[in-house]
Amino acid sequence: MPFKNIDTPIHIRKKLIAGYRKMTPQQKLQRVNELTKAVQQLALARIRKKYGNISEREQQLRLGALWLTRETMIRVFHWDPEQQGF
Hints:
The structure is a single chain. The protein is mainly alpha-helical. Helix content is 70%, strand content 0%. The chain has one domain. It is built from four helices and no strands.
């Protein structure tokens, strides 16, 4: 196996991989979508904790700044993460 430094026991990893191999491409995409949404929710929780009572728009901008370049944020949203103290 190419995995190193993983704390999951090998027999569990084998079951997990076997389960992924049985999934259809649509099921795999759905899983990726669900995991992406979970990561975004965690990031939003961190943003809310750090910045307190900010607008929904600012929450979304700060979330976007985690994935997009500064130049993209400025060009598309006219919002500079560096000036906003991100």
